[in-house]
User: Which sequence fits this backbone?
C-alpha cells in the first residue's frame, strides 16, 4: 500500500498523521509530496492508494487549500474522504548541539511561529533578539538547523531523531496545550459504514435568497441529524461568495441522510447538487 502525505522528510505532522492512521496495516510505503493539492492529485490518479491531508486546526481553523483540492479532485476523479485522524500539535526548540553558545538565528515555519509566539518571544529576548527566518515547513527548519550549529529550529518531536538534534527545552513550546490538527484520509475507495460515522458535503447556495443556509440545513435537522461543522469557504475569483462545508453525524448510507439530501436538492436553495465528499468513521477509528 502506498500512502501520500505532506513532506518533506518524516518530521511533518502529515507524516505523523499517516503513521498513526495506517499503523498495523502491514507493508505501507509512505510517499512525500510538496503540497496538499499534490497529495490529492496522486490519490485521485491512483499514484498512491490513499492521501493524508490536514483539514482543520483547533486554533487556525480550516485549511482552505485542502478543501479546494478535494473539491476539484472529487469532481474529476471521484476522490472521497474515507477516514480521519487527530494529531496533537507539539513543537520544540532544537539545535545541533547544546554547547551553551548564543544562537544566531531561528528557523521556523510561519504557522509554527504564531502557535509558539509566547515562548518564542521570551527566547528571542534572552538571546539578544536574534532574527527569525521563515521556512516552508517544520522539516525544513530542522534540516537547516542540522547544517548550522549556531542556529535553532522550531520543529516536531520526530525531527530530533531524523536530523540528530538536541532539545533546548524538554516541553512543547506551543501557546495552547490543547492544540490539535485533524487530517482527512482520501482516496477513490469508499469507507465501510460504522456506528460512528460522519458525512461531509459542499453546498453552493443561491446567496441573494434570505435564510438560504437555514433552509439548506433544515432537512437534516428535521430528521434528527446533528450538524457538527458548518464553515464558509471562499470561492476563488468571486468576491464575497462562499461554498459551505458542512459535516453531519451519520453515514450517507442511512435512509434519513439520503432523504435529507434529496429534499435539499429539491428545495432549489443550492445552485447545483451538493457535493458529497464522503462518509467516514469519526476520529481515529477505521
Assistant:
Amino acid at each position: 500500500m502506498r500512502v501520500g502525505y505532506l513532506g518533506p522528510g518524516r518530521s511533518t505532522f502529515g507524516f505523523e498523521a499517516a503513521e498513526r492512521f495506517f499503523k498495523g496495516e502491514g507493508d505501507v510505503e509512505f510517499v512525500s509530496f510538496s503540497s496538499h493539492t499534490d497529495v490529492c492529485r496522486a490519490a485521485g490518479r491512483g499514484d498512491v492508494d490513499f492521501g493524508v491531508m490536514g483539514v482543520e486546526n483547533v486554533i487556525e481553523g480550516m485549511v482552505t487549500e485542502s478543501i479546494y483540492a478535494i473539491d476539484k479532485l472529487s469532481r474529476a476523479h471521484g476522490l472521497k474522504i474515507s477516514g480521519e485522524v487527530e494529531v496533537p500539535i507539539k513543537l520544540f526548540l532544537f539545535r545541533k548541539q547544546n554547547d551553551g553558545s548564543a544562537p544566531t538565528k531561528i528557523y521556523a515555519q510561519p504557522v509554527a511561529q504564531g502557535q509558539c509566539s509566547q515562548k518564542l518571544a521570551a527566547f528571542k529576548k534572552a538571546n539578544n533578539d536574534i532574527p527569525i527566518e521563515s521556512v516552508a515547513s517544520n522539516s525544513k527548519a530542522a534540516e537547516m538547523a542540522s547544517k548550522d550549529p549556531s542556529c535553532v529550529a522550531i520543529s516536531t518531536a520526530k525531527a530530533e531523531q531524523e536530523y540528530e538534534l538536541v532539545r533546548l527545552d524538554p516541553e512543547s513550546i506551543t501557546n495552547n496545550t490543547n492544540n490539535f490538527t485533524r487530517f482527512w484520509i482520501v482516496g477513490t475507495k469508499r469507507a465501510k459504514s460504522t456506528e460512528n460515522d460522519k458525512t461531509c458535503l459542499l453546498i453552493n447556495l443561491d446567496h441573494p435568497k434570505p435564510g438560504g443556509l437555514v433552509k439548506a440545513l433544515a432537512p437534516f435537522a428535521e430528521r434528527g441529524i446533528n450538524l457538527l461543522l458548518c464553515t464558509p469557504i471562499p470561492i476563488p475569483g468571486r468576491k464575497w461568495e462562499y461554498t459551505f462545508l458542512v459535516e453531519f453525524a451519520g453515514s450517507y448510507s442511512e435512509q434519513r441522510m439520503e432523504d435529507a439530501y434529496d429534499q435539499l436538492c429539491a428545495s432549489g436553495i443550492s445552485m447545483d447538487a451538493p457535493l458529497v465528499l464522503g462518509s467516514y468513521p469519526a476520529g481515529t477509528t477505521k
Observations:
- The longest strand covers residues 80-88.
